[in-house]
Structures are given as structure tokens and as C-alpha cells.
Amino acid sequence: MRQYRVAFLCAVVFLVAGAHLAAQEILTAPRYFEQVAANYAGIVDYIANVRVSTESENMEGELFYRAPNLIRINFTRPTDQVLVSNGQVFMLHVPRYNVTLQQELRSRGTETLANLASAQGLSLLRRNYSIAYLDSPAPQPLSEENDLMVTKLRLNWRTTSEGFRQLILSVDEDMVIRRIEGVTVNYDRITFHFDNVRLNQNIPATRFDYDPPSGANRFHNFLFEGDS
Questions:
Q1: Burial of 181 (0-12, 13-18, 19+ CB in 10 A)
Q2: Is the pLDDT reported for residue 219 higher than 60?
Q3: Which architecture, in CATH terms, is 29-220?
Q4: What single DSSP character describes residue 142?
Q5: Per mean pLDDT, which range of 8-17, 38-47, 76-85 is the poorest?
Q6: Model confidence at 57, in pLDDT bands (50, 70, 90)?
Q7: How far apart are CA 109 and CA 128, in angstroms?
Q8: Of 14-28, 103-117, 169-183, where does mean pLDDT reach its minimum?
Q9: Are 16 and 10 in contact (CB under 8 A)?
Q10: pTM for this entry
């Protein structure tokens, strides 16, 4: 009888110890997000092939990012379209309409899905969104067409002052964001896909200088009045 009691107690100890170790290994979504943010804090710049999908249009191009807030996309589809921000002014040149939209940025900046994939962007998300796993902590394929294994996070806005109601971040095993899906205030959906991401490429600041064609019609502060 004593042997059975000892065996039972040993089994209980192993079960409790195993449960304790399993609990220690669980990585919560906010903690996982912090790991992703820490990785981006060490990224000086990157280049990536980018695809932008909306409900009405698909665009493709090459994205250049340099910390803390320089971004440029040279589009190949539509041809010669350019999106660029030097941290003070945001410009979008649309050749098919011969138009350049120019926006003086406020101190907080203008959020786009592209510049959320940065240390500064992730810092904004940490403050302004609740963070959870989309389904579970387990990696899953990026999509039905792409078997790249990623961890998916779901971010929901804390206040209605944010530009996106919900964001879904897909992060690969190297802690690099490979896709961001956003739902805007008006329930429009937009997705940024990042492929062939090349980190710390020593991109010069001059890459983010842009002079739109002289004959293009310019519209200043088309979103809101700039800071005075």
C-alpha cells in the first residue's frame, strides 16, 4: 500500500511540474509583439518588394525604408507612380492623372500600413491597439496560396481616433512582418504584402528626395491642414 501511495505522489509531482513548465513556455501575444518590436528597433533600413491590395485595385513596386520615418515606394504597377515621405512631407505622384498629392505631416505623422512595419510604427500600435493572436500562437501558412509559416496577430483599436479599426500582422520566424491587413474607419480593406525583404542595406537619405514632374498638377494638404 505504501508503494502505491509513493507512486501516486510521484505522479502528482510530475504532473504539477509539467503543468508549471508548460505555463512558463506560453508566450502571450503582447510579449510576442514586444519581441517583434525589439527586432525592428535594431533595423536601420530595409528594401522589399511590396504588393498593395485594395477592394478595387492591386499595385506592385519596390519599397525603401530608413529609420526612423523615411519611406519610398517606386511602383511598377501602376507604372511610374511614386509614394514618398521624408518625415515632414508626404507625396503621392499619380502619372495617369498627372497629379501630385502633397501633405505636410503633423507632429504625430500620417499612418499608412507601409510605415507601420517599423520601430516607430510598432510603438504607435503598442499604445493604441489591443493585441491578441488571430487564432493561436501556433505558426500557420500565410495564405492558401503561400505556405510560408507565420504567426498572426490581431490588433483592435482602443479609440476611434485611429486610422484603422483592425490590423492583422503576419510575422515570419525571423520576426519580420510579411503582411499587414487593415480595416479602415469606413470598413475599407487594404493589404500590404512584403516579399524579398533585405535588411540593413545602407540606404542613403538622398533616396527619399523626390521632385515630381514640373508639369504635374499639385494639390497641397489634401488630407488636413499642416502644422503651422
A1: buried
A2: yes
A3: Clam (2.50)
A4: S
A5: 8-17
A6: very high
A7: 14
A8: 14-28
A9: no
A10: 0.82
- d(CA 106, CA 113) in angstroms, rounded, equals 17
Extract long-range pairs of 77-82: CB within 8 Å, 24+ residues apart: 82/210, 82/212
User: What sign for the dihedral angle of Cα 194, 43, 110, 96?
Assistant: negative
Annotate 147-173 with DSSP letters as a single string. --EEEEEEEEESSTTSSEEEEEEEE-T
Is residue 166 exposed (0-12), middle (13-18) or buried (19+ Cβ within 10 Å)? middle
- Consecutive H or E run containing 24: helix 2-25
Buried/exposed code over 84-98 (b: 16+ C-beta within 10 A; e: otherwise):
bbbeeebbbbbbeee
Q: Where are the domains of the chain?
A: 29-220
**Preceding peptide of 68 cis, ω within 30°:** yes
- Cα–Cα distance measured from residue 40 to residue 34, given in angstroms and rounded to the nearest whole number: 10
* Helices and strands: H and E segment counts in the chain: 4, 13
Instruction: Please give the distance of CA 101 from its chain centroid, rounded to a whole number.
Output: 23
Single-letter amino acid code for the residue at 220: H
